[in-house]
């Protein structure tokens, strides 16, 4: 962990040429972390998982299952099986369909499934959107920290080169 002797106000003045009041809250937080030597916070996945409720995790699972090829294939097999069981083919074996064509009960079940599944998937998409916002904020902070550290290193290199130039000038004055 690298700790600087400068305060966030001094860092802001030195690196950005502005006062701490002139920068936005995100930049202020980054400067405070740099001054304290604090390492980055949680990443987007960790932060989202930390705040996820049981309903959030359930919505993510429903969306993951409902949006897979396995679900589509299994659902197709179930629908085909339902239609087969409730077709006139079974009457040849002396069985009577409990939901004959036009499959009214099946339509009711599909409508209820869609009415429940659609909002659950939307909840999961909202959580994914929240994760993306957290990731964007995290990326912004990483980029800002990197930019500030590069500015800092550049200033140190300038000081070092100025020192070396002065030393060389002093030596060349002694040689004459």
TrEMBL record:
| Keywords of this entry | Membrane, Transmembrane, Transmembrane helix
InterPro entries in the record:
DUF1003
Listed transmembrane segments: 62-84, 104-123
Q: What Pfam families does the record tag this protein with?
A: DUF1003
Question: What domain of life does the native source organism fall in?
Answer: Bacteria
Question: Protein name, please?
Answer: Cyclic nucleotide-binding protein
Q: Which organism is it from?
A: Novosphingobium resinovorum
